[in-house]
Amino acid sequence: MLEPATAAIAANRFGLGARPGELATIGAGGRDWLRAQLKAPPPLLGAADLRPSQQTLAQALQLRREIQAQRKAARVDPAAADAQLQKIGQFLRPIYISEATARLQQAVSTERPLLERLTQFWTNHFAVSVDKQLLAGLAGSFEREAIRPHVFGRFNELLLAVETHPAMLLYLDNQLSVGPDSAAARRIESRQVERKVGINENLAREILELHTLGVGGGYTQTDVTTFAQVITGWSIGGGQGRFAGGEPGKFLFRPELHEPGSKVVLNTRYPDSGFGQGVAVLNDLARHPSTAHFIALKLARHFIADEPPPAAVSRLAGAFTASEGDLPTVYRALIEAREAWLEPLAKYKTPSDYIISAYRGLGLPVEAGHGALVPFELLGQRTWQPGSPAGWPDKSADWDGASALMKRIEWADALGARLGSRLDALERAPQLLGANLSEATRTAVARASSAAQAVTLLLAAPEFMRR
Questions:
Q1: Is 457 within the bounds of a domain?
Q2: Rounded CA gap, 275 and 257, in Å?
Q3: Integer Cα distance of 354 and 16 in angstroms
Q4: Does 270 map to a domain?
Q5: Rounded to an integer, what distance in angstroms lies between the CA atom of residue 120 and that of residue 275?
Q6: DSSP H/E element including 270
Q7: Residue 207 per-residue DSSP state
């Protein structure tokens, strides 16, 4: 084991980048420093301008209804209609900015960076994307309400919180899913109108493929379809027409949309208990051996290497299974894994990792407003916009292209110019990189033609690009 590098690995790979003085505090007790962060409950983000998802969604849905009513009454032309719909985006944009800024402030200032990294890991595992309009106002509250409180709980609890959150239901359109033999479908048929109901498989497929078992985890297309039937009725209150009723913006089980009858998923029969039928399937998925392996593989890939050692993955999966999905038990097994401490620079930082570690290492303030979020957009990883339910990729090959590297260097150069002579990069380098600081980087920073260029060279160093 490379003992001199343990502090740097703890702060930069398990954490979010070392702050000045942090490596000295950690010393040789990297594992102890990480284990201590698992003991207290996750703190909630307390910014005054953060609002519950229910409030945001209820207001957005009401605004949409008002706009639709105005369009119908006035028979406006398409261009004017589009302009009206932009009012929803204007309502959601400041909510997104407040949420994303609060997230960044927490990541930069926290003394429990492992907790923040784990929160971001699970948010990416259960990805939603602001590509979908309403998610701009819900992605942040989804992380605060469904992810953060359960990071130190059991996986089945985290899974249920995620799959019943309005953000996930809206992102994957489950509120539109109607059982073909449900009470709602029968009413429509009795009116002899064109049938406009059906099963939506999006959420069921992504739960099996991305959230639990993983590709090749043993499920079939029949399991996807049947599971989609099981979770019909998992919806949101405050809709219109057949989706009316319930508390606006809050999860609601609608029995009239639920496909009746017992169902077989993964060779197990589940009696029709309404909402409980879906909960029972989720609980069994959370305990499935394929889920244990899939979660272990993703954690090992994130914390050890792009292609993690199979033995390490197996041990993590064993900890997951033996503890019945107790996540702190799995994290402790990860911290104990010798493979996580062998290669100090095994992981290439994503743009988000790179930006956050620069903020932490240079002591940059996170200012209110959109400005602090611009670097994430410039470097190609806008907060909560992975573009697909699969989330952001977690391998070097997805981030280390020449163009992406140039954008990082350009941003580092702009930071250097902004800081000027206010920061001594040569003095700061060992505080951020510890034993990973190479003689080549130390020499380059020392020979910089200006203090600004020294900052650029430090942030552009290979050691700073990796964790």
A1: yes
A2: 11
A3: 9
A4: yes
A5: 29
A6: strand 268-270
A7: I
